[in-house]
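step=encode ok
step=design start
structure_in=
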């Protein structure tokens, strides 16, 4: 990274922390939404310059300068840099602006991405200049100053999303624009980064906020019943169809449907969903009559759909129909400066603000040295476990028959032991919660301050039934 990059990022990181707003500082706007004072900022940032020396078997000499945070290279016309080379995949690789360097990611291309003869799958670009080889093509990549500016939303939260880091403030600026539109949105991000929260903010602040909002988890529903779940069915359409059923698209008429884990959609279902999006109509299973629909689609996935397209696991035309606007949620390890803001927010959600003294500067320093593969979900579990274990230890009466501290098995890895402890707590919490709610999942989700879909997923993971069986 050049000195210009480091100075720009350092300045804005310091500026963001100095102007941060804590969770308790939010107010409400005219729609009743919690918000923080909105301050738009922009910053100059370096851009990439690509000198194409060979394209396929043809020696060329052309230079392309690309602004923005993500640069896509491949043979498909939708890429930022299109390479006419039969050995280059449709979406061959992409380059992302990271908090410390430009990152090169190969999209599971057929022939690989190479730097200095070494095959690269995921690495930081060795700038200020490097030679990229894809297929029979050669591209020299360098960094240069840019007159373009990156938009930032200079605030510490966006509804239930928190962050003062550069990646989060760029995300807030993107969401601020997306929320005002009615276009389909694809949310990409690793598991646990908060894609559902992003979807909720898009819906709550969008033009269809007063209309129905329907969630469908494509990864949790078996392919054989997913078509009925999405489009409905008529009586007698299949064994067990004893009455007509309205599908998710019809139920969301005029509003929004959230298709979670869209990357899990089977190849058989993809053309049916594509037709619904293109023609704005659906057919119930067992019915020949088409029904017109007016629905906005917000989809989320922890997979890279461009990579899935390369592998033939996802239709290219469906990908483009879903990704009119693409929002990418950053990894927690790329925004560790947000930990001091996220932990108080989690404690607020647990009604455990009095436990904030457990999170000392020394503990935060230790947390910043960890990669957080489970992202914000793992952080939430860690905070909750820290609070619970402290309370459990201090709350045990010496004369009671309560079990003592868990025996530590040093033959097991730290991660395995921690996951078992968390899983045990989650199961006990679910059983107690559902017993309190009398098996009413909606009531239980409200008590736990989580959305109903997340509660269903926890119940499914731990095989906990509403009736306690």
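sequence_out=
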């Amino acid at each position: 990274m050049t000195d210009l990059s480091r100075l720009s990022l350092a300045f804005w990181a310091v500026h963001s922390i100095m102007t941060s707003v804590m969770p308790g500082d939010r107010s409400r706007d005219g729609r009743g939404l919690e918000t923080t004072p909105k301050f738009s900022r922009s910053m100059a940032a370096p851009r990439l310059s690509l000198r194409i020396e060979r394209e396929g078997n043809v020696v060329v000499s052309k230079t392309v300068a690309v602004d923005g945070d993500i640069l896509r290279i491949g043979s498909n016309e939708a890429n930022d840099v299109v390479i006419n080379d039969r050995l280059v995949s449709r979406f061959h690789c992409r380059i992302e602006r990271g908090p410390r360097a430009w990152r090169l990611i190969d999209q599971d291309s057929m022939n690989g991405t190479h730097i200095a003869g070494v095959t690269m799958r995921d690495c930081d670009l060795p700038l200020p200049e490097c030679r990229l080889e894809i297929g029979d093509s050669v591209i020299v990549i360098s960094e240069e100053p840019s007159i373009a500016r990156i938009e930032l939303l200079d605030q510490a939260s966006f509804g239930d999303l928190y962050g003062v880091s550069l990646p989060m403030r760029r995300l807030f600026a993107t969401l601020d624009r997306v929320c005002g539109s009615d276009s389909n949105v694809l949310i990409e991000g690793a598991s646990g980064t908060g894609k559902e929260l992003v979807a909720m903010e898009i819906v709550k602040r969008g033009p269809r906020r007063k209309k129905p909002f329907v969630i469908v988890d494509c990864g949790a529903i078996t392919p054989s019943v997913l078509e009925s779940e999405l489009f409905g069915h008529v009586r007698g359409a299949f064994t067990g169809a004893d009455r007509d059923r309205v599908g998710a698209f019809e139920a969301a008429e005029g509003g929004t449907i959230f298709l979670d884990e869209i990357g899990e959609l089977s190849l058989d279902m993809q053309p049916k969903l594509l037709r619904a999006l293109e023609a704005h109509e659906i057919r119930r299973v067992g019915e020949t009559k088409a029904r017109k629909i007016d629905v906005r689609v917000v989809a989320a996935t922890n997979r890279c759909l461009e990579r899935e397209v390369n592998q033939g696991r996802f239709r290219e035309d469906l990908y483009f129909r879903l990704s009119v606007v693409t929002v990418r949620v950053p990894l927690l390890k790329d925004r560790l400066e947000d930990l001091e803001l996220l932990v108080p927010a989690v404690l607020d959600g647990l009604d455990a603000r009095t436990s904030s003294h457990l999170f000392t500067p020394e503990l935060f320093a230790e947390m910043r040295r960890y990669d957080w593969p489970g992202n914000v979900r793992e952080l939430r579990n860690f905070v909750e476990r820290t609070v619970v274990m402290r309370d459990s230890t201090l709350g045990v009466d010496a004369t009671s028959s309560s079990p003592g501290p868990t025996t530590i098995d040093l033959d097991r890895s730290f991660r395995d032991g921690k996951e078992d402890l968390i899983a045990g707590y989650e199961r006990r919490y679910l059983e107690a919660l559902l017993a309190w709610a009398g098996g009413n999942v909606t009531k239980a989700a409200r008590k736990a301050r989580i959305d109903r879909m997340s509660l269903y997923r926890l119940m499914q993971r731990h095989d906990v039934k509403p009736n306690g069986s």
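step=design ok
step=annotate ok -> Confidence is low (pLDDT under 50) at residues 1-37, 391-406.
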